[in-house]
């Protein structure tokens, strides 16, 4: 029997993060982490531990200023949070308060429907076409907001700036969020559209291209009213979200552009090589603009490859979901890691 107090519990279906195995000597290609260490400047940014007895700057001003400077924006056009998951959750809470449904693709970052559920936001998913492309017309209907990653996850597929512009033209009465978690790996940023569209919010993360998944830094860029609204919600929830070492190390990371360019270029080069190898082994996939490839084999079921790889201590991501249950999402590791994975595949297929 249900006890009375149980009726007042918020019931949610939580997001399932990728595995973080404890084992040593594994090849970890399952959660899109960067295979290279963060900038040496990050590791060298020695904070005086004495400072830890103080509360951190609630506005994380140094980090906000560094990000704004990097993108040529004003500091009041940048919001920072504890990973882009935090920034996105705050954005759902702040901008998606309509009775009309929020639109996002059926195959996309699997946190979107979780936040919609958590915050009781109505939503409708729009099916990607057979080549995993977003269909612009699907987003022309009346809605309560639009969100999609570019490049999309887990497909790795990019839409053009013209496509985003078209979506914005048809959605001027709602906030449109472009999640650019992977844009640094060869994508095209929507930043040039910020000046023209005051309802555009762009969200980024330090987790992938800056090798700082463990630090938890994400940010949003948009016009000052959107950023102000986000800050108002944040300060109504928890003022001191970002800790002091994170502010210091994040600032160091954004200032080391040379290292950032070098490591993202390495990941892109490895991806191009890996895509050729995959094609030769009978895999099909859409050209990736991210630090992973979403691939399906013409004969061997994805689940079988996933399980066989795990036995060899190689972790990739498998989603047991409609339409994508015959695909593997393989993060790009170092050249050596990818060669080991390719050799494993050569024996299997
Ligand atoms: C990884 C990812 C995020 C979250 O990144 P954080 O580590 O929380 O900054 C957000 N959106 C997409 C599409 C992602 O793949």
Outline of the structure:
Helix content is 34%, strand content 15%. It has ten helices and twelve strands. It has helices at 40-44, 61-71, 83-95, 112-118, 161-169, 224-235, 244-255, 257-280, 302-311, 335-348; strands spanning 27-29, 78-81, 102-105, 123-126, 145-149, 176-179, 200-205, 218-221, 283-285, 292-297, 314-318, 328-331.
What does this structure look like?
With 349 residues, the chain is of the alpha/beta class. The protein folds into two domains: 20-37 and 258-348, Aspartate Aminotransferase, domain 1; 55-256, Type I PLP-dependent aspartate aminotransferase-like (Major domain) (Aspartate Aminotransferase, domain 2), CATH 3.40.640. It is built from ten helices and twelve strands. The protein has helices at residues 40-44, 61-71, 83-95, 112-118, 161-169, 224-235, 244-255, 257-280, 302-311, 335-348, and strands at residues 27-29, 78-81, 102-105, 123-126, 145-149, 176-179, 200-205, 218-221, 283-285, 292-297, 314-318, 328-331. The strands form two sheets. A seven-stranded mixed beta sheet has the order 2-8-7-6-5-3-4, sandwiched between helices. Helix 5 (161-169) links the parallel strand 5 (145-149) and strand 6. Helix 2 (61-71) runs parallel beside helix 7, helix 3 (83-95) packs across helix 6 and helix 8 runs parallel beside helix 10. The longest helix is centred in the C-terminal third of the chain and has 24 residues, at 257-280. The chain is globular. The termini are far apart. The structure holds pyridoxal-5'-phosphate. Pyridoxal-5'-phosphate binds next to helix 3.
